[in-house]
Amino acid sequence: MKFKISQSYLEATARQRIGFIVDKGSFKEIAPPSEKPASPHLDMFNIPKSFGDGVIIGEAEINGRPVSILAQEGKFMGGAFGEVHSARITGLLRRSLNTKPDAVVCLWDSGGVRLQEANAGEIGVTEIMGAIFDLKATGIPVIAAVGGSCGCFGGAGIITGCCDYVIASEEARIGISGPEVIETTMGVDAFDSRDRALVWRTTGGKNRYLFGFVKELVENCPEEFRSAICSAMAKSFKYSLKNLEAMQEHLQERADKFGSMDNTFDIWKEMGFNSPEAIPEMTVAELKSTVQAGGEK
Amino acid sequence: MEHLEYKFDGGNTQTDMLKSTVQGVVSSGNLEVLIERKKLNGKCRFIIDTAAEGFAKTWQAVLSRFMENHQPADLQFSINDYAASPDIVSLRLDQAYEALSGGKK
Questions:
Q1: ipTM of this predicted complex?
Q2: How does B53-79 read in b/e, with b if 16+ C-beta sit within 10 Å?
Q3: pLDDT in tens, B54-88
Q4: A185 near A266, Cβ under 8 Å?
Q5: B93: domain CATH number?
Q6: Which of A124, A194, B48, B98 has a Cα-to-Cα distance from A38 of 20 to 30 A?
Q7: pLDDT tens digits along A129-143
Q8: In this complex, is the C-beta atom of A76 within 8 Å of any C-beta atom belonging to chain B?
Q9: Looking at the complex, does the CB of residue A187 fall below 8 Å from at least one CB of chain B?
Q10: In B, which residues are within 8 Å of A43 by CB distance?
Q11: What average pLDDT does the structure give for chain A?
């Protein structure tokens, strides 16, 4: 097992992440902090604001190719979708319909809708989804990267699922209801949110990769995120009614096959892995070679 | 939340700086510092929104120390603070000033 010492994508700020991904010196920020775009709602809750409302948007180049790029700051209010936050993202996506970049790169890191601005945030999430579908219809690929401490939950989980291609690290958790929400509503027997191993092997990047939701699994390393984004930019994505129907059928089969199981290990065993309990300890490279050697993907 | 503003007499104006920079993140015990070059007759202005109320004197002390150390002029500092401790505030101010001056002393 060989580890390269690297910076951590997980611990980096949104601004650092953009620096990791784009060509040096190519990033042109739109509505930067100096314009002081911030939430009009947080004052009444006595909560500090942030210039940019927790998301950085702009245009840049990756390997010399033009992209639109956004990065959510997970450390500010859990990367949550507030009104201004969402409007900034929607604005960038809609602008991309005109500027027609080679790709729209979304560095998501969000627990979902910002509860203090819930209605505006919910509307924001639907507007972002709408703009993503418009981009897909135009043939501009929307690439998602998830590797922050918030992962992608709630509206962010849905938005991530709308993107053409999802790149994630094992550390990234992706889902709709977060572990604590499930525990609160279904009981601790259904899901123990304090059992970190359980939380990660259920919602973490590896399981999402094995289920095919995450298309490329990478280590928690900025260079790996960047090269995965470059590879994704070389792909083309096609949508048709036939594809959608096939996907629906696949999901039904999956539900029939795994629906009665309540443990990720049983699911992995059923997928064809002989020693599923070894999976959480594997590096990304080891997991991929195991998948190629016969485990179902 | 408490809103605070301070003005200090500046030192030497440096012209080879970036126009603006932002450093730090608004999260618990942390803050973001936005510095912009502005014509302020040589003075420096600090505009602070902080979640920790009642620390005006501490801010005054931390900012005075920063001004003594760096002697900047014609800069506006906008700070969003989520109750960072004074040492973290000092660190972020230094970090932002260093980023603005491109790492040059």
A1: 0.92
A2: eebeeebeebbeebbeebebbbbbbbb
A3: 999 999 999 999 999 999 999 999 999 999 999 99
A4: no
A5: 3.30.230
A6: B98
A7: 999 999 999 999 999
A8: yes
A9: no
A10: 1
A11: 95
